[in-house]
Amino acid sequence: MTRELWSIDARDPRKVWAALVPALEGTGAAILPHPASPSGLPETVPENVAVVVETSGSTGRPKRVMLSAAALKASATASDELLGGSGHWLLAVPAHYIAGINVLARSHFSATVPVMMKPTGFSAETFVAAVAELKAERRFTSLVPVQLARLLESEDAVAALASFARILVGGQSTPIALLAAARARGLAVTTTYGSSETSGGCVWDGTPLPTAQLRLVDDRIELAGPMLAEGYLDDPRRSAFTFREHDGIRWYRTDDIGEIVDGVLRVRGRADDMIISGGVKVSLAEVETVVRTLPGQSAAVVVAVPHPEWGEAPIVITTSAIELDALRGAVAAQLSAAAAPARVMLIDEIPMLAAGKPDRLALASLVLK
């Protein structure tokens, strides 16, 4: 049995909301929210699929993740348990992000109507105006790190953020300094880890949601639970490789490596970000984390380049000049000599994807020119 699939213009979150509710209730077509007209979209999907989420494709070709209403409800229910019950949600991220879909789905399952910001023109002023529309005392929102950083620059926005019972921050790694600054202002910030394949964040502050499971297989993070996706649309081979059953449990094999310290997950970076430099394993994500703690380097990006002596080496791409020896010393002191960047590349502007993440493919190409 199949179900009709509609592409919905995600530039207007009200259209996504209007189509998502019947999709979740099983009375309407499945939807693929998208900021443009996606190509190659089939007319139907399996009957139990309610939402298809297209990934950003930051490290390769985009994937179309199929989510059931049951998976989104399981995510919402587990989230409510940690949040201490339902509340009024503010949609501040684009409605084609899994985080945005989650805000809408949680609102539906708690029988509330979210306040919806348009994703274009996000600013402290528009955020404060949207917060004023929230009616309930218990209020929640999801942000990406760059939004949180922008809001912390405004006293009015900080006051608005302080009215939230919980602020979820995810979509990418949250800089330690940014998280500390938000919490120092008394903000109830929780970092989330997950993906479209897990109906969004299913690990909060390093701990799985009540119905989620976490394990490491050769340092690779794997996740399980009722919030897992059905697989990838029209891609059975990738689905079979990524979603695997073991001892009766279906696991999602992520592209990330991590470690568990005192019962808390620490994401070390992407598996394909691990390089061998001079015979030593180096995580580009860990190098980037250290670099971003240095003055003026909060937006710096670290990529790998071939090196005639070491095989591969990290280099730092930044818009703010920094002395190489000081940079190498800081990284070597916290990680290892092999992790010390080989050079610094200064550019005018970091290219970004629509999802608000650095375009690492474009940066890697730029370095190799």
Automatic annotation (TrEMBL):
Domain (AMP-dependent synthetase/ligase): residue spans on this chain: 41-220
A Gene Ontology molecular function term of the record: ligase activity
Keyword entries, A-Z: Ligase
InterPro entries, per the entry: AMP-bd_C, AMP-bd_C_sf, AMP-dep_synth/lig_dom, ANL_N_sf, ATP-dep_AMP-bd_enzyme
Gene3D superfamilies: 3.30.300.30, N-terminal domain of ligase-like
A UniProt-annotated Pfam family: AMP-binding_C
Domain of life: Bacteria
Domain AMP-binding enzyme C-terminal, chain residue ranges per copy: 286-357
Protein known as: O-succinylbenzoate--CoA ligase
Organism of origin: Rhodoglobus aureus
